[in-house]
Specification:
Length: 312
């Protein structure tokens, strides 16, 4: 028999659905606005006539410009490299670290866990983090190029290697590993499984939801990462190693008035409306991979966070 909904419960659901609809509209509107600006007439974009739907005469020139831009696709490939290799790199040592910290037999386990969580409470700050990246880059350039000049190496690798630590994700993985029944591990040891086999054959398959969630966190942070990517590659002048976000920021600053720093003498494209429409086209292209991949990982998201975030 269907339970009759009380008035207070009905009011709560109405309010909850209202705010969910408003929040969803706020999230979807920027994408619709970018799509509309990409296909709108350049004069309409320049005069800010685009509100929701494309304004003026429809055009595909912005789409064609981005599609045929070699510099954009070079930066796009850099982002794909940083995201794919960086996510794999982060997952490898995050899984290894979380597996070790999940073992009660490890010496000083509580101390190591405390130091890990301590970094979540108190950050060293922007300046020490930047100096750490610089030091890591100099070590890498010394190893691979025999020089302390970071410009001698491809700094995409520095973004991958130096920016992989995330204490929150390690804690999620550690809690998920702690939820694996110890009897399964003991059975594997009796069968002669090594430590690596136990990790790869027992813990990882039983924590796929959490690993997929952490991989999503790492992937999105690498794909959307701008500030540190700019500080690492922009300062060295390696425009060939720029991720797409850094290239887009440079394009917007030189060719549009969106940042307030537009300089007509430095502009590659004389028409501000044209350049602004092209910038929105780049934004749309940059969002496509996340929009395609996210629905396939979403089913693991809630389950993975619950498994990794709750400790019995």
């Amino acid at each position: 028999m269907k339970r009759k909904m009380e008035v207070s419960e009905l009011i709560f659901k109405i309010i909850a659905y209202f705010f969910l609809i408003v929040f969803a509209a706020m999230c979807i509107y920027p994408l619709i606005f970018a799509l509309s600006s990409m296909f709108s007439d350049w004069d309409a974009v320049k005069e800010s006539k685009v509100v929701l739907w494309p304004a003026g005469k429809l055009q595909l020139d912005s789409f064609k410009y981005v599609f045929n831009s070699s510099r954009f696709w070079v930066s796009y490939s850099n982002t794909l490299f940083v995201t794919f290799i960086g996510t794999i790199w982060c997952l490898i040592y995050s899984i290894l670290g979380a597996y070790a910290l999940s073992k009660k037999r490890i010496m000083g386990r509580h101390g190591w866990n405390f130091f890990l969580v301590f970094t979540m409470w108190f950050s060293a700050g922007v300046v020490p983090q930047f100096l750490n990246y610089q030091s890591t880059g100099k070590v890498m350039s010394t190893i691979f190029a025999g020089s302390t000049n970071m410009a001698d190496i491809d700094l995409k690798w520095l973004i991958v290697i130096a920016m992989g630590m995330n204490a929150t994700n390690i804690v999620l993985l550690r809690n998920s590993f702690e939820g694996v029944p110890s009897e399964i591990e003991e059975a594997a040891r009796i069968d002669g499984a090594t430590e690596l086999q136990i990790l790869t054959k027992v813990y990882i398959p039983m924590s796929k939801a959490t690993i997929a969630t952490v991989a999503l966190f790492f992937g999105i942070s690498r794909w959307n990462g701008y500030f540190w990517a700019y500080k690492v590659t922009g300062a060295a002048g390696q425009s060939y190693s720029w991720p797409v976000q850094v290239y887009m920021r440079d394009f917007i600053q030189l060719n549009t008035s969106l940042t307030g720093n537009y300089n007509q003498d430095l502009a590659d494209i004389p028409n501000i409306g044209e350049a602004t429409s092209i910038a929105y086209a780049m934004v749309v292209f940059a969002m496509v991979p996340i929009l395609v991949i996210y629905p396939f990982i979403q089913k693991y998201f809630a389950k993975g966070v619950n498994m990794g975030g709750v400790k019995e």
